[in-house]
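Cross-posting from the modeling subforum.

Setting up a comparison between two proteins and wanted a second pair of eyes on the formatting. Protein 1 (sequence, then structure tokens):
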Amino acid sequence: MSLAPWVLSVLTVGLAAQAHVHASEAAAAPGYYTVQATGSTGWSSMDAKVEAVRETLLAAQVPGAIVALPVKAGDAVKAGQELARIDARMASQGAAASSAQVAAAQAGLNVATKEYERQKQLFAKRYISQAALDGAEAQWRAAQAQVTALQAQAGVAATQTGLHSVRAPYSGIVSSVPVNLGDMAMPGRPLLSLYDPAALRLTAQLTQDQARQLRSGVQVEIPGLTVQRLSIAASQIQLLPTADPLSHTVAVRVQLPANQQGAMPGMFARLWWQGDAADAAQRVLIPSTAVVRRAEMTGVYVQGDNGKPQLRQVRLGLPQGDMVEVLSGLRVGDQVAVEPQAAARVR
């Protein structure tokens, strides 16, 4: 009978501890937010890339060793600046030979011209026949034709000599130089590529319905630029007149403002446009506090079928106050944990 108070005390302590555990679990249980459609139109987006409006791949037109390569990738060049030079010694010798042949032909033409003038004077005095005069005229005309032909050949030789120097067709940035000094250049082999940084554009592949929604203009987002977003008018948007036969998407080109600092071809970009009423039923917002960011993954904890929160990756849109739009990864009716840290502790 003396053990009863001690047993009662143990039972009391055990019940209190169990109640404390249940209270702690209840306090640690995360709250949930039910995903609902907003009923209003929002912004839609699509991945895009930056490309140059003017981008040129300069190739060799004549064979020969590369003897000068004064530029490298990233250099800014002016229009007409020499970018590469090919060994032109043989071409220079050929041009000199052609010039000498032209000089010899012109000397022969001078002789034929003087002879023809003398024959005309003799014919006027009836000292020679008509046949002799015709012969002198034929020689004079042949000498003229020979000079013209040799001058054309000399022009071809001079043009070929000029092809050994590769010059910039416009002011721009050298994007790549796939050859080295001393390499053998062959006709058609790329020597370097050049683009104009003052004229850039965005390209994206959109569905037909998405392309139709671009009539009111778009916004452009390029990570890394000082300007968060750029507003582009509809007049600067071009829809190509053909669609891809496999994906049935339309290529869209968006002209960027001139001399956009920090942008370069190949950069990742995102195209934003205002959706229509048909998109309102699918547009959802969640509290910003529910978002979990781990390295490059963005997600939320969603209540699973077993009642426990499960991490799910999502794609976010624009923030709106304390809420943020979810473009993909959630659907109406999902239960999202508003306290991700508490949800991560639930096992």
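Protein 2 (same layout):
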Amino acid sequence: MRLSNETLGLLPDGISVPTYNRARLTAGIVHIGLGNFHRAHQGWYLHRLMQDDKAQDWAIVGAGVRAADAKMRDKLLAQDCLTTLIELAPESVSAEVIGSMIDFLPVEEGNGPLIRRMAETDIRIVSLTVTEGGYYIDPATKGFDADHPDIRHDAENPGTPLTAFGAMIEALRLRRAADQGPFTCQSCDNLQGNGDILRQTIVSLARLSDPALADWINANATFPNSMVDSIAPATGPAELALVRELGIADDAPVTHENFRQWVIEDAFCAGRPPWDQAGATFADDVHAYEAMKIRILNAGHQVIANPGELLGTETISGCMEHPLIAALFDKVEKTEIVPHVAPVPGMEPSDYVELIARRFANPRIVDTVRRVAFDGSSRHTGFLHPIIRDGLASGAPIAGLALVEAIWARMCEGTREDGSTIEPNDPMWADLNTVAKAARTRPLAWLEQEHLYGDLAAAPRFVDAFEVWLRIIWQDGTDAALEQYIRQ
């Protein structure tokens, strides 16, 4: 059955559908970057509220700033912006259709439709999922990268920006000019202090062209920090086949695990939905939740994905079935990551490691190693390197983390252990590949990438361990290095 408003009542038994009148929904949120995670997470929380006759003036308007986003727009508009969410628990499969999104803006050069919609006063929140590497952060300084070509363009052409941030700034300028208040700017990406980072990007970019506007945004807009957590793999042929097996013709279904968590700082300058009534948590200190999730889950993903790629293991659950990769995960997490993670209400770090191990091992979640390993230049610097610095500062073990970095360097050389080619998988792949090849004979070359490693290249304990591991990997193979670390 083709998914649409008209066919909701004709879908197979057992498929949960919206019980609210979608024609009466009105917009309150523009979301930029409408991928699988957003629909399985933020879109779901809002849908749950709507099912209880709440938040029906907070419907989502989708948006994108890349030409590729137009393809998703076409798919979703063709099915009235409905999405089938398929929950994959280890022992069962279930599905529901969510209807919290009501429109998807045209994707145009200069982002005019997006700017105009955000400038309208019914939009009270503009949220984003644009990936960890999408915030124009200098990897070495963690400050704003004012020299990026996209940023220079937006500073010189604020009325026709390339970036989501430039579009948000122009919309805020229009609202200020009309004597209207700002909207809340809400990052939903996996960045510690994601709201603070979004504030840094928006205010810094605005200051390049209009310092007074930058001051107004900084003083009046809010940027709540949040922690988001749910695994929603990319949609491919298997997921499209699965939704059809359920009896639904949906060109943009989303599969997800049977777990989600959202912890949000309650800082919304123009109001918000009561997400806590759908299971979200509002907390004054989001940092501890962020740190636990980013250090144990997100860093853990990198711990297993890179050796998985080298050893030809295609999925994250497959990595957890591989005895050496699973043992690497267990030891690094418990001995080198957990000591630098504080507990949160109701959860000890060691218990969270066990929870994450079970989630990663769910065989129904076909989360690819390639997806998880993508953009290592952002994910290693954001997730792993801060833990290494903490370990060095406290005298704690860092040998396993140094091994993980050596495995990443080996992976970026572009071939697996069996000789097959690893296709480019990082925005900086060409540079990484060149340096990785040089590091085969001179390991220090990898750490001399100052934009990635900064002061870590001057830390003897880390440098020595990294050099030893990379030489072992090239001489004896990844398996041998993993075995040696596990035996230590």
